[in-house]
Fold this protein.
Amino acid sequence: MTTNQNVVNLGDRVEASVTTAPLKNVMLCTRLLEQAMNRPAHLPGMVTFFGPSGWGKSFAAAYAANKYRAYYVECKSTWTKKALLLSILKEMGIQPDKTNYDMVEQISQQLALSGLPLIIDEMDHIVEKKAVEVVRDIYEGSNAAILLIGEEKLPTKLLKWERFHNRMLAWQGAQPADLEDTRQLSQLYCPDITIADDLLERIQRESMGVARRICVNLNQVQQAAYSAGTDQIDVKLWGNRPLYTGDAPRRKVK
């Protein structure tokens, strides 16, 4: 175990300001983390939020991290066990020790003494590198609330590690954006224009509920409103212009 001098004092940590909207997945993700944080002591403390790409999982995780001052890391495809540990310690503001064992001890101690949760985004990369056991080691050493975020098949992938899988308190699937989510996103990213419900419904439908595509379409609609010199736009004004669906345009054959 490392000495207490490596533990960061978070008493004066300033909570960052995150502009967000009360989206469905934001609430689901936040409640999931709260469930892990407020669990009885005899229950496991890891939870997983999973779903398709573009559904706003990372957006929701950023909000949850800000609300509860969680340590947050977003994994990369090139990361090894050591890279994960180094990234967490960097987020904690702790100078890393030399070995993986010592770094796990540093992280575990900081989580235990601070009482703050840990959020690991893009967990699929850690699964693919067969490095999930290092996360279990951190959990076992700290008993902290840990939120894992990944793609739709993450729960199935984790079945290969029974000891890890058995320490999961809850699983929560992300949901596609509905009309109310689309309206909230329009108010967040297009505050100076009013987009009528008929156009918001079309955006939601053609975006297939994918939050990232909805944001792309909202930007296109906003630019169209600017070009028309208006602060209000509906389906009639939008006309027959196409919306972004994620599909690449087909090549025209002469």
